[in-house]
């Protein structure tokens, strides 16, 4: 494995679109926040502490897990941006130029972020809706690391973390879900506040502070204290299944009452993607969302969902500039984005 592989590979294995309920759920992510005992948390620790933590984690995983170590200090801002766009590191870790690191698996379904908000963020990703399976995988990695290090743990409070909302299990589970019909029927504005009342949070495609590009939302638990891992997973799964049911009902209603308008929207979007010479990120994601809906409804049969997942990564600003070999102005990115989409769709049609 190499840095170039992680940077240049278009889409990670968890973006394959082959998991359960992948017509609505793109991916499942489970993240465990952990800190080492008797070491200052990242907000106040020293550079020597940071280097020591990276070494301890490397010693813990090197023999039992096949992971590549990437140090943030060795990466350019553009390379780090690409890793953020692929959901392999967080924007916060990307900002760490001296003491941050990440251990990433070849399939890019495992990422252990080191010296972010906490000493460790163990992240596992899966295609489709696989909450329990993804949690089990994260716990296996957690157990491997805990064989070599002592975690900061309190008998009453649980795992101690940098942010109070992660104290307890340290578990943040999230599901990336595509809800175009609920957006089209203007139901999301009512649904989001209701979800928040259940102790869950709705964010955009890149988590906190990001927008829901292409009608893609992240649904995750907000608190970890006072709930078991099982409770968190079950509560999130219950809400996601309800959203899936409502999305399907909304799709059925659109097909029943506005079939011609829906088909027109889908095929116009495909025409834009297949023929545009300039296209901005928001428009590209909206069109990709519409085409994906058309594939799920059976209107478009010659394009695979995996290609759309790939394009959602490839058309991001970081990836476009990485392929260009350096910085691009906004208009230059829009031109390259349009050309890349045309090329990929043309290749798919030929196949």
From TrEMBL:
Motif RDXXRA motif of the pArg binding pocket involved in allosteric regulation: chain residues: 333-338
Q: Which UniProt keywords apply?
A: Allosteric enzyme, ATP-binding, Kinase, Nucleotide-binding, Transferase
Which Pfam families does the annotation name? ATP-gua_Ptrans (PF00217)
The chain positions of domain Phosphagen kinase C-terminal read 24-250
Amino-acid positions noted as binding ATP in the UniProt annotation, renumbered to this chain: 27-31, 87, 121, 172-176, 203-208
The free-text function statement in the UniProt record for this protein reads: Catalyzes the specific phosphorylation of arginine residues in a large number of proteins. Is part of the bacterial stress response system. Protein arginine phosphorylation has a physiologically important role and is involved in the regulation of many critical cellular processes, such as protein homeostasis, motility, competence, and stringent and stress responses, by regulating gene expression and protein activity.
NCBIfam families assigned to the protein according to its UniProt record, in alphabetical order: PRK01059.1-4, PRK01059.1-5
UniProt-recorded name of the protein: Protein-arginine kinase
Q: Which organism is it from?
A: Domibacillus epiphyticus
Starting at the broadest rank, the lineage of the source organism is:
Bacteria, Bacillati, Bacillota, Bacilli, Bacillales
């Amino acid at each position: 494995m190499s840095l170039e592989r992680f940077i240049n590979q278009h889409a990670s294995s968890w973006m394959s679109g082959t998991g359960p309920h992948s017509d609505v759920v793109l991916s499942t992510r489970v993240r465990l926040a952990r800190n080492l005992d008797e070491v200052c948390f990242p907000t106040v620790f020293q550079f020597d502490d940071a280097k020591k933590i990276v070494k301890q984690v490397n010693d813990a995983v090197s023999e039992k897990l096949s992971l590549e170590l990437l140090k943030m200090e060795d990466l350019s801002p553009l390379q780090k941006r690409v890793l953020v766009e692929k959901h392999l590191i967080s924007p916060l870790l990307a900002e760490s130029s001296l003491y941050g690191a990440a251990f990433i698996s070849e399939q890019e379904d495992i990422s252990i972020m080191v010296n972010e908000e906490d000493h460790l963020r163990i992240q596992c990703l899966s295609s489709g809706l696989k909450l329990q399976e993804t949690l089990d995988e994260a716990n296996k990695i957690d157990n491997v690391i805990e064989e070599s290090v002592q975690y900061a743990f309190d008998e009453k409070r649980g795992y101690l973390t940098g942010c109070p909302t992660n104290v307890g299990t340290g578990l943040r589970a999230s599901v990336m879900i595509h809800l175009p019909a609920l957006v089209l029927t203007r139901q999301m504005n009512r649904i989001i506040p209701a979800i928040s009342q259940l102790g869950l949070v709705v964010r955009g495609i890149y988590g906190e502070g990001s927008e829901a590009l292409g009608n893609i939302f992240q649904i995750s638990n907000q608190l970890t204290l006072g709930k078991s891992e099982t409770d968190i997973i079950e509560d999130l799964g219950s809400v996601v299944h309800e959203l899936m049911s409502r999305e399907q009902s909304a799709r059925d209603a659109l097909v029943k009452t506005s079939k011609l308008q829906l088909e027109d929207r889908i095929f116009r979007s495909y025409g834009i993607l297949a023929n545009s010479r300039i296209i901005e990120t928001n428009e590209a994601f909206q069109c990709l969302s519409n085409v994906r809906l058309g594939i799920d409804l059976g209107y478009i049969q010659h394009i695979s969902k995996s290609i759309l997942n790939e394009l959602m990564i490839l058309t991001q600003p970081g990836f476009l500039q990485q392929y260009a070999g350096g910085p691009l102005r906004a208009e230059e990115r829009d031109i390259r984005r349009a050309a890349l989409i045309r090329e990929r769709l043309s290749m798919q049609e030929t196949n």
